[in-house]
Specification:
alpha/beta, Rossmann fold, about 140 residues, five-stranded parallel sheet
């Protein structure tokens, strides 16, 4: 099975957060051939690092180091799933289910995991719960 990694896991993996060690251990225990991210994860990862930089949670050097580590991982260690226009339409349909509380970006993660038959791995409880309710196997790390 493909393990789709949500952005939250990778931000924690490559920056200093309370969950960093847990995420790093989880990643090292996974079979690299099963790991996947999407082009959307890459966009969100960069945006998250920019927020951390603006809020002074990290400095310029830490941002550069995290970006480099992420880019190396994306190029060598995981499968990068393409995001198609159908994923955006599915995400809109999923986000319309307002009781789930899915934000647009999270709905897109669920749509991608759903389409590729992947399990979703995240630090976001709301995302994990919504994914599960929508029939996507989800693991809250």
């Amino acid at each position: 099975m493909t393990l789709y990694i949500d952005t939250s896991v990778l931000v924690s993996t490559f920056t200093k957060e309370a969950t960093t060690e847990r995420c790093q251990i989880w990643l090292t225990q996974c079979d690299p051939d099963t790991l996947a991210i999407s082009d959307w994860v890459a966009a969100e990862f960069s945006a998250a690092l920019s927020v951390k930089l603006r809020t002074r949670a990290i400095d310029v050097a830490e941002r550069a180091e995290a970006l480099s580590a992420f880019e190396t991982m994306a190029a060598r260690s995981v499968r990068v799933l393409a995001v198609e226009s159908t994923h955006f339409r599915t995400a809109a349909r999923l986000a319309n289910q307002y009781t789930l509380g899915l934000r647009a970006g999270d709905a897109l993660h669920v749509a991608i995991a759903l389409d590729y038959g992947a399990s979703l791995h995240t630090l976001d409880r709301r995302l994990a719960d919504a994914a599960g309710a929508l029939g996507v196997r989800a693991e809250l790390l």
